[in-house]
Amino acid sequence: MSTVTVDNIFARSLRVALVGNPNCGKTALFNQLTGSRQKVANYAGVTVERKSGYLVTPQGHKLQVLDLPGTYSLVATSPDEAVTRDVCMGRYKGEPAPDLLVCVMAATNLRLHLRFLLELIQLGRPLVVVLNMADVLEKHGIRIDVPRLQAELGVPVVTAIGVRAGGTKNLLTLLDAVVSQETVLQLPHPAMLSEGEETAYVHERVRQILEMCVTHDHPIAIKLEEVLDRWVLHPVWGMVILSILLFIMFQAVFSWAQPFMDMIQDLMNKLGVLVGTFLPEGPLRGLIVEGVIGGAGTVVVFLPQILILFLWILVLEESGYLPRAAFLLDGFMAAAGLGGRSFIPLLSSFACAVPGIMATRTIQHARDRMVTILIAPLMTCSARLPIYALLIGAFVPNKAVMGVFNVQGLVLFILYIAGILSALIVARILKKKGEEHFLLMELPNYHWPSLRNVGLELWQRAHIFLSRVGTIIVTLSILLWALSSFPAPPPGATGAALDWSLAGRIGHVLVPIFSPIGFNWQICVALIVGLAAREVAVGALGTVYAIAASESDVSGSLMPLLSAQWGLATAFSLLAWYVYAPQCLSTLAIIRRETGSWRMVWITMVYLFAFAYGAAFLTYHVTCWLIG
Amino acid sequence: MGIIDKILKYLSSFKICFCRMPMKAQMKVQNLFNEEGERIITLNTLPLYHSGIVDHVKALSSHDIIAQRLGELGFVPGELVKVIAYGPLGKDPIAVEVGFTRFALRRSEACRVVLRQASSCSENSDS
Fold it and tell me: Which among A284, A403, A406, A542 is least surrounded, fewest beta carbons within 10 Å?
């Protein structure tokens, strides 16, 4: 039996990796160990999240901690499981091999988690074991003989309570002992087995260990899962509960966030005015007020929606409900070739695609996640409503059909349905034939969500959004501001200043491309300026048509003007365009951040553009032909 | 804790049963037998609230990743498996309990798990 010494510990801090099954409370333990000293990034080249941090032990040793993605086995079935496998084996490129593996197991579910531990021991690397959730053992009437377990496994075993402050004391003491070499880790000795023998051996071993080390004092009187699942997973009541929860979530993201968003927008406007008074009239003022502050405004205005949506998702995930929602919705989403987990991101995309795409992190299956990100912009987001309201108000008569339906409402409904149907079609096309795509997932035990974990996670989401996505959006909005401000119109020129700017000229250049779908140069200019955000297009149209009305009433003054100047076909064509509307920089920026590749951004842009153009073309010509 | 226990007891006193069909309609009779001559049934045909003992997990191809994962999750010979719920659309997927853990899986995945000694009905654990 060989022993391992941790060399050069004074030269660099020890690298510790937390590894374990999903739902073993590993992340709670990680949060408890590292507190706010965490960094969230991606593993190089994949979209798997890398969580790392550091901790200082009671004896003052600084350790680096890596929270590896949860996995059931070293035989990987997904990219995140592959990351865990490769890091554990010390063969992940760009990720040094951890000096010590800390295998986290839920003490209440050793039957499942021991198997993976035995597999890890077979790797023959330095390893310690943490029995997490030790606090609920007594409630479940389970007793574990820790010294015996340690003897049977041949590796150090400590208990921990990941959700309680101070619950990691035993682990910290053990880590100190390992670093100061008081505890010399015996390298576990793998049993020499052939592949076929291994499975049978491991299961036999799990059974033996359970028999020797675990005693059940009394059966649990009423199991929480038994009772709750009977309602939550019920085909009728389960769907009722799910609908209520989703309805509240949708309401929260859609309307409860609105006052906060208005407040932020208002504050940013006031800040712009305030800063403006201190700066002399000229390009610098324009750059600061419209470019920087205006751009930052478009970023922070998303925060209320993102925070509310993630608060909701995190609570559902932590409580153990989210996998059950995925179970209920799997049948419906399978029709689109997706899994149940795609539902919540898509639903939130009706409010805004940005939080929706961020929510795709809860989808484990890599391909499902990509497809969901691709089709999320097809869900009609709230930013498209101002332009829908303007065009429908101007061109569709406000009268009833068949007694109950309003034509305007009907058109709006058709626009929503067109988006959803297109999403279904895209998802079906992207579904790879023959690829085995499985659901097989654990329905974890119910838990009270921990305030600390939810808070920490929310803070991380906000931080990532502001720092990574924010910088892209602000940069682009400064660029856009420059495009629409320079060059200034010559003295004595008539018409809107926007018309003289580069953006205006690009708009004019684009006219030949867009005239087959009935767009005039005013629309083209509005589309360019509307890149910043879809709802900006309404304001831009107002500017192009030189409407001097106050900001709030642009839409009202535009309506009669547009209905006089545009043909019906052009209006419908623009509506069809906005079902797809590829021009939303924030969406493209979030796709870049979430997928880590510009390739996905290009794919999204090109396919949305093609769909938008095709639909607008069809709509324009069919309408022209119909009205003769 | 007392109040929560009371609520749980109250909730569990309901028998949610209108989704259950008569036994005969549910049970697809399979005349399959294992090597010892016991009647066997695959997990995808096991009726709601019924349980069986895992005989083996059969791989559908030489590199059947799902069969492998089923084994890793505890679907191993001798374990008791109980069906606890059906999905709302076409009764797919199904939720099952193995040991102390619950899993959701599609019927197409569940057909790999071969059971023996399907019990008549193990529901009403509270009665």
Answer: A403
